[in-house]
Amino acid sequence: MEGSTGTPFRHAVVTGGAGFLGSHLCEALLAGGTEVTCVDDLCTAHPDQTPRERVGVEFMDLVVRL
């Protein structure tokens, strides 16, 4: 995947990365050669959607609050 300047992303942080949309976004980023940090508290995620076991993924089990 590329940023607005046309240069490829090297690393992306995906919040909610273990959910339906987030897990698919992680997969698309990985397929494009981007390393991914997946942040999710797993409160509604299905264990099969968690990209923990993938090469290029760092998984962080935490809650992000503003």
TrEMBL record:
<protein>
    <submittedName>
        <fullName>NAD dependent epimerase/dehydratase family protein</fullName>
    </submittedName>
</protein>
<feature type="domain" description="NAD-dependent epimerase/dehydratase">
    <location>
        <begin position="13"/>
        <end position="54"/>
    </location>
</feature>
<dbReference type="InterPro" id="IPR001509">
    <property type="entry name" value="Epimerase_deHydtase"/>
</dbReference>
<dbReference type="Pfam" id="PF01370">
    <property type="entry name" value="Epimerase"/>
</dbReference>
<dbReference type="InterPro" id="IPR036291">
    <property type="entry name" value="NAD(P)-bd_dom_sf"/>
</dbReference>
